[in-house]
Design goal:
Blueprint (H helix, E strand, L loop, with lengths): L8 E8 L5 H22 L4 E8 L22 E9 L2 H8 L10 H15 L6 E8 L11 H14 L2 E7 L12 H12 L3 E5 L2 H8 L9 E8 L2 E9 L31 E2 L7 E2 L6 E5 L2 E5 L1 H7 L6 E9 L12 E6 L4 H18 L1 E8 L7 E10 L4 E8 L23 H13 L19 H14 L9 H4 L7 H5 L2 H11 L1 E6 L4 H11 L7 E6 L2 E6 L5 E6 L12 H14 L1 H17 L4 H19 L5 H16 L7 H7 L26 H9 L8
Parallel strand pairs: 1-2, 1-4, 4-5, 5-6, 7-13
Antiparallel strand pairs: 2-3, 7-8, 8-14, 9-10, 11-12, 13-15, 14-17, 15-16, 16-17, 18-21, 19-20
Helix pairs in contact: 1-2, 1-6, 3-4, 9-13, 13-15, 15-16, 16-17, 16-18, 17-18
Amino acid sequence: EKRMARAMETRVLLVDISASMGAVDLNIAKTALMSLVQQKMIQMPTKTKMGLVMMGSNDTKHEMTDDKDEPLDGYDNVVMVKSIEQTDLLILDGINTLAVQEPECDYLAGLMCAVDMLKRHGLKITQDQGVVIVTNGKSSFNAADDQDVIDVLQHQICNLGLKLTLFGINFSSSDNQSDWSAAEIMLRMLVRNTGGELKMVCNEREFRAHAVKSVNPTSLFRGDFELTPDLKIKVWAYPATKIATLPPLKKRPKGSGGSADGTKALMERKHVLVEDPDEEVKPEDTTQAFKYGRTHVPFGEEDLAQMKMAGIKAMTVLGSVPRKRILQHYLMSTADIVVQDRDQPQPSGKMLSAIVQGLSDQEQVLIVNWVKRNGSPPKLYGFFPYISKDEGIYAFHACQMPFSDDIRPQNLPKLNKGSKELTAGEIDMARQIVEGASLVDACGKLLQQFSTLPNPTIQNFHQTIVNKAMKVHTNTGCSKDILKPLQPSKNVWAKSEEQASQAKEVFHVEWIKTEKKDVDTVAAVDRADHDDGGQAVKRQRIGDNVVKEEDKEDESLDLRIGNMAGGGDNLHGTSDALAVFERSWREDSETAITEMRVRIEELVDKSTDDRPLLKAVDLFAKLRQRCDDGKLDEPEQFNKVWDEFDVKYRNNSAIAFWVKVLAKGDQLERLRIDDEDPQTLSQPAVAPTAADTAGDDLGVDDDEFD
């Protein structure tokens, strides 16, 4: 496959630094332009030339002269900062030193100077040449007075084949021209009439996204997409994602400078015998070998060629599988995109789109044997249908799939080993945390600050290389500032502060410090508490939970997630029950009181020691506190529950629950009601007699029943 050489790209950066620009908009322009230049310096270091011109400067400096070599009048406040040269660090320095100045911006004078710079540099049809304008369009402008100049400038741009790109900082998003400034109207019309491009930018991040030049990428594959031996579709393939890497390092002698023609250092390799390091072995006397066990098996060039799995360039469908059968970790690789043949969009386009639509409807994925180039080994790919009806795109996203030899099965430990399944309260709490931390706003749009995250390694490299080249010494590294976009957003997590605090109670997460203890002592304590087969372990009590950990030699900080009832049913955990009670209380207090009474009774009735009883007392105290703060009939409902418990547990000598309640005194007494006698608060309810029960069953009053 033949690839066309990349054409030389020449650009003049025309920047507005007038007072109307302001410091905020100028900082956006400076940061974005530096990002654009840095990208070109890495991707196209020898194929990019740039110049820099300021509009709205206090000074005037340009190369436009009359017949007497004197500066032309009418082009004031325009300064040529850097002539058109191969892109280097000097243009970054020029952008970095831009500052807001007082004069108004003369857009037409700046454009005329930029076009003149390109003409003096030498225009070539084979080169991609143009002007990049960066402004907010807020300087005053009168189109009626300068209409002749606009017509001449528009004619020159079209005849010279220049590309005009306008980055409108904070331009109006309205389609109504009455909302546009006069300068904005002129610049928009000039770009439209010359076939240029307008990119509206509201912040630095958008500018960085626009700074990436939209070009036709180099194709990875051009050939037949073979469904069957008799059915083939012409397709092209491009990279959809590609990991950005740093440029390779080169060896240079110290003090050689940073110029392109500086002295280079080469590394000389030689082979010597292990037994005799002084004896050199010539390259032709060496061969390659694979280590197999403890031996080395020599391989010559013929052996290597025979062993290599060299395939023939092809893209052959092996079959289809359901989408849900492909595990998600199989997709953790770079992706390519397969589209119809650009040279012959019909009929390949219709045929490919029909297959894509059919796979999408059936939720199927194609498994394809893809050899991208002749001589390359075959690889297994999954072709996932991709449809964008708004843009009219029907294509495949291709992700490399593993062979059976690539899969490494692992016997992974279970997270909740030895414990029961998650409760509904725990799952509900986790859902609330996830919803609170959503990066999508109420309108379904991705939050702006997370829309385009730059690669912190690449950004840190740019900043470090600029600081070093410009001899800017800083006491602290710049990686901290660069990594800030990857920090969690305080605004997002502020929404889930309440859920996070409740989650601490639900899951009972706590950081504890484990200290080294004597193994014999710990084992003795453990055996006294519970027989675990004599294994020397230590127990750490976390609230109401007991967790085990093998003895460690050093102190450590461990995160514990305990069971809600000390190894029992999670449903009866105090923290879990409180969280569920709070949520139920917000919805319906009467239902919450009933559910809490049931939970307390379950704890008490199933108790075998004091721990469940203490939990029940804590829940009862929480219920009393909530009912005491109630605004309706919650106090009456609590007193009713109190009376029921009093009747049920006061005379139950087998369960000491009510003894513990009464021991709390006024902390767990009946609630005082306005029309209730204060003396009745501490009086226990009396169990109904058999006569009372019989009277109720007959439906008569106490006086009538004897």
